[in-house]
Amino acid sequence: MSATDRGYQKPMKCATALVALLLVTISADVLAATSGRDDALCGELGEFLASILPDEQRAITLHTYWGAKEEGDRIVIASRSCEHDDYEPGKKLCAYLMENSSTEFPGYNTQRVLACLAPPGLPGDLTINSGSFSTDYGSPGRGALVDIELSPGKEPGGMTLRLKADGY
Questions:
Q1: φ/ψ of residue 35, rounded to 5
Q2: In whole angstroms, what is the distance from residue 25 CA to residue 19 CA?
Q3: What is the SS3 string spanning 121-132?
Q4: Are strands 131-138 and 74-83 parallel, antiparallel or unpaired?
Q5: Burial of 64 from C-beta contacts in 10 A (0-12 / 13-18 / 19+)
Q6: 3-class secondary-structure state, position 90
Q7: What is the side-by-side strand order in the sheet with 57-71?
Q8: What is residue 16's predicted lDDT score, i.e. its pLDDT?
Q9: Is 137 a residue whose pLDDT tops 50?
Q10: Would you call 140 helix, strand, or coil by DSSP?
């Protein structure tokens, strides 16, 4: 190996180490930026759950539809609706979900909710097609028991995400 070849080895090793360090730093930033706790949904969900009084039960239901269907004289490819039982904090959460939830991938909505409420460590590559989950929100003395359910809707292509909370 010539001196010229050896002269390039050190800078290449340095460059490789620098690129590796840069990738690790970027990966950590991306993971921090995409963790559930940084999701604006967490704040909206927290406001809804914190509003539920002891011995009170509240729920919201997000319906999504993906596929082609006829509605009157037009074809609808995707749709969303949200039920809130006329509860003001539920209306606010529904308004957020109507603008900021996935219609095509309803499992992703459930994953976001779980990332807000579950202890850290939920796998980022988790795929949820349907399921029922329970957790709590708040402190041992005041909060809510939360049930999260993702299930097929009444029609093919439809999915329902239901959040039900019992205050304590």
A1: -70, 150
A2: 10
A3: CCCCCCCCCCEE
A4: unpaired
A5: buried
A6: helix
A7: 74-83, 57-71, 158-167, 143-152, 131-138
A8: 39
A9: yes
A10: coil
CB-count burial class (<10 Å; 0-12, 13-18, 19+) for 132? exposed
User: Using CA atoms, how far apart are residues 110 and 131, in angstroms rounded to an integer?
Assistant: 9
Runs of H (alpha helix) within the chain = 3-34, 40-50, 88-100, 106-117
Contact 150, 110 (CB under 8 A): yes
Answer whether residue 133 shows pLDDT above 80: yes
Which residue reads 């999504």 in tokens? 64
Whole-number Å distance between alpha carbons of 105 and 95: 18
Which tokens hold the place of 95?
């308004």
> Mind listing the pLDDT tens digit for each residue in 38-83?
899 999 999 999 999 999 999 999 999 999 988 899 999 999 999 9
Distance CA 49, CA 51 (A): 5
The structure's pTM equals: 0.75
CB 110 within 8 A of CB 148: yes
Say which amino acid occupies 118. Answer: A
Tell me the two tokens of residue 75: 């074809």
